[in-house]
Amino acid sequence: MTGSGGAEPGREVLDAAMARALELAAAAVEWGDTPIGAVVLGPDGTVLAEAANEREKRGDPTAHAEVLALRAAARVVGDGWRLTGTTLVVTLEPCTMCAGASVLARVAHVVYGADDPKAGAAGSLWDVLRDRRLNHRPQVTGGIRGEESATLLRTFFRARRSL
Questions:
Q1: pLDDT tens digit string along 4-44?
Q2: What distances in angstroms separate CA 3 from CA 66, 90, 132, 139, one per listed residue?
Q3: Which residues, other chains included, contact 49 with Cβ-Cβ below 8 Å and sequence gap of 6+?
């Protein structure tokens, strides 16, 4: 079984969703979190949910932007845990936890900005999202506003190292 549910939203919709994810990511810096933002789009391209990293804010190692956005989208959809036909837009390539959550939620498309060569699970280090052994494989698109995402992260980590 592969990803299910309609065509990926158009480039304009994805660009707008990534712009919002970048705004959310920038806000996470205010509470000391790694600047990562995520937006979940419904099958029609409308925003269902959004979140920024809140690991530091919540003291929760699982409070990644993707997980928080997927949880919120599931509450909005109100049809159990399946997010069939949805698109997850996130500023950084998902880690193994977030990629796994996307697979388990039956997200149709995962769109990300910057590659994560140290922990990415959408092709950089691992490829959980396209692993043929799994029963669901979302479509994956990387590099949408990738340089903006990477710049935000580099700036954050430079500032952290200088403290």
A1: 555 678 999 999 999 999 999 999 999 999 999 999 999 99
A2: 18, 18, 11, 6
A3: 39, 40, 69, 70, 71, 72, 73, 75, 76
In which residue are the tokens 């549910």 written? Answer: 5
Rounded (10°) angle between helices 11-28 and 65-77: 120
Spot the catalytic one: 8, 50, 66, 93: 66
User: For residue 73, what are the contacts with CB-CB under 8 A and spacing of at least 6?
Assistant: 40, 48, 49, 83, 86
Four-CA torsion 70, 32, 112, 108, nearest 10 degrees: 0
pLDDT digit string (tens) for 75-132?
999 878 899 999 999 999 999 999 999 999 999 999 999 999 999 999 999 999 999 9
State residue 32 phi and psi, 5-degree precision: 85, 15
Looking up tokens 């205010």 gives 30
What's the pTM?
A: 0.94
In the annotation, is 54 catalytic?
Answer: no
